[in-house]
């Protein structure tokens, strides 16, 4: 349940608990109100387009390559036996605040 739905349900709960006498006079209880809200929520249509950028470098499975450096303070380093292929602020995930990530692949030989 997302935050906005939870806030609506909590608001309904507060209002109904504060006005229990009025609601009982109308023949409604908390469960009916929540059920009505959830039924209405099911009918809402949401369309959202999410643009996912193409990765700058495609990794092939079982190549031994890896991204070095962990956000937020990245300090990518390719150790002995590895060659730095690409430097990038985001690399394979969350963008670095400081420093840079490096794509490291085994030396050919």
From TrEMBL:
Superkingdom to which the source organism belongs: Eukaryota
PANTHER family assigned to the protein according to its UniProt record, in alphabetical order: PROTEIN CBG06219
This protein's name: Uncharacterized protein
Organism, as annotated: Daphnia magna
């Amino acid at each position: 349940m997302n935050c906005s739905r939870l806030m609506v349900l909590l608001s309904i709960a507060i209002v109904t608990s504060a006005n229990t006498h009025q609601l009982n006079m109308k023949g409604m209880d908390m469960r009916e109100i929540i059920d009505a809200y959830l039924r209405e929520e099911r009918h809402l249509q949401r369309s959202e387009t999410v643009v996912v950028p193409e990765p700058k470098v495609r990794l092939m499975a079982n190549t031994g390559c890896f991204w070095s450096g962990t956000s937020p303070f990245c300090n990518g380093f390719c150790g002995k036996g590895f060659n730095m292929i690409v430097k990038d602020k985001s690399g394979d995930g969350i963008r670095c605040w400081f420093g840079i990530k490096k794509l490291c692949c085994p030396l050919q030989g």
